[in-house]
Amino acid sequence: MVAAVRERWRGSQRYIAEQVPGAQLHVFPVDEADSHFPFLENPARFDEVVSAFLDA
Is 38:45 a contact under the CB 8 Å cutoff? Predict the structure, then answer.
């Protein structure tokens, strides 16, 4: 699970990631992505995160 969320929403994102076997949670720092759409805001960084997960 990849997210760009404010601190107040991280608890719900952690909960969702804990419910999915094998999931990992990556939260972008606000200087990399600061919206609900990190794949649009910073596609290169988003691709790096997803690729690292898939390669693991």
Answer: yes
For the chain, give every domain's residue range: 2-55
Q: pTM of the prediction?
A: 0.77
Burial of 46 (C-beta count, 10 Å sphere; 0-12/13-18/19+): buried
What single-letter DSSP state applies at residue 7? Answer: G
pLDDT in tens, 1-52: 666 666 777 788 889 889 999 999 888 888 888 888 899 999 999 999 999 9
Q: Kindly list the distances between the CA atom of residue 9 and the CA atoms of 14, 28, 42, 55, in Å, as whole numbers in the listed order.
A: 9, 13, 20, 28
